[in-house]
Amino acid sequence: MKLDLILKSIYEAFLEHPDPYRPHIFLLELLKLTLYFNDFHFDKQFFLQICGIAMGRRYAPSTANIYLKKFDDLATHTPLINPLLYFRFLDDIFGVWPGTVAQLKEYEAHLNTLIPGIKVTFSYNNYTIEFLDTFIYKHTHSNGLTTLQTKVHFKPTDTHQLLHRSSFHPRHTFNSVIKSQFILFKRISSTYSQYSFTSSILIHSLIARGYNKTLLRQQKLKIWREYKEPPTSRKEQQKYTEIIPIITHFDRHNLRLNHK
After folding, report:
1. Which residues are registered as beta bridge partners of 244?
2. Higher pLDDT, 258 or 136
3. What are the angstrom distances between the C-alpha of 14 and each of 17, 69, 202?
4. Of 2, 20, 101, 161, which is most buried by a Cβ count within 10 Å?
C-alpha cells in the first residue's frame, strides 16, 4: 500500500460519505503523521517505513478495505470477462469464473495493472478450491443438479492449539471456546457428516488439552440441533424482545441483583 494512495483513498471516502461533524482535515493530518513518521529499530540501526501501515495499527484493516475499494470496482467492471461471483476478505479474493483458463490468466494479468503495488496470484480448480478455512467443492445431486457445497478446511500448519483447560481463566471462557468452534463448523459444513468429521478432530485435540470428553460430545450435538443464526434483517429482529441493559456498581447488593 503506497502512502500517498492511502491518504487519497481515505480522502475520497470522506467525500463520498460527507459528515459535517467529522474533522476530516485533522484526521487526515493525524493519519499522515502515523504513516510518514513510523520509524523502528532493528539490528542496531534505525529505519523509516516508507510503504504500508505499521503492524498492529487499529485502523489498518479498515484502511486496507477502503484502499482496495477502487480495486474491487475495477475488477468487477472490466472490458474482459467478469467473474460470476467476486468476494474479498482483506487480501483474499474468492470468485466463480465462467470463462476458460486462458481467459482467467488474462484477467489475472489485467488485475495486476489496476493499482501500483497490488498484485494477485490466482489458484483455480474445476472442482474444488480452498479459501481461508473453507473447502468449496462441486456436488451433483440425485436429480442431476450441481451446486457448490462447503466443509471445514484445516491448513497444514493448524495444530489446534486452543486455550488449555488448566490455564487460569473463568469457566465461561472455556465454554465459549467450545461453543464458538462448533458454531463455526456448523456454519461452514453443508452436511452433518462433514460437521461430525471435523468436530471429531476438534474433540480429539481438546481432550488432549484437558477438556471433558462427555461435555464436548454433548455440545457438538446441541449446536447442530439447536443453534440458529441470529436475525440479520430489521423485520426479523423486531420479533425478538428488546433487552434493556442495567448498569450497576460492584457492591454487595448490586452483585446479588446481577445474579438474578
Report:
1. none
2. 136
3. 5, 13, 44
4. 2
List all residues 6 or more positions away from 161 whose beta carbon is below 8 Å from its beta carbon: none
pLDDT digits (tens, 9 = 90+) for 123-141: 888 888 888 888 888 888 8
Q: What is the pLDDT of residues 144-172, one digit of tens each?
A: 888 888 998 888 888 888 888 888 888 88
* In the chain, domain spans: 3-67, 69-124, 134-226
Long-range contacts of 115-122 (CB under 8 A, 24+ apart): 115/5, 115/68, 115/70, 115/71, 116/2, 116/5, 117/1, 117/2, 117/51, 118/68, 118/71, 120/93
Q: Containing H/E element for 14?
A: helix 3-16
Three-class SS string for 192-250? Answer: HHHHHHHHHHHHHHHHCCCCCHHHHHHHHHHHHHHCCCCCCCHHHHCCCCCCCCCCCCC
What's the confidence (pLDDT) of residue 257?
A: 65
Spatial CA neighbour of 101 closest among 122, 128, 76, 72: 122
Place of cell 455440545: 219
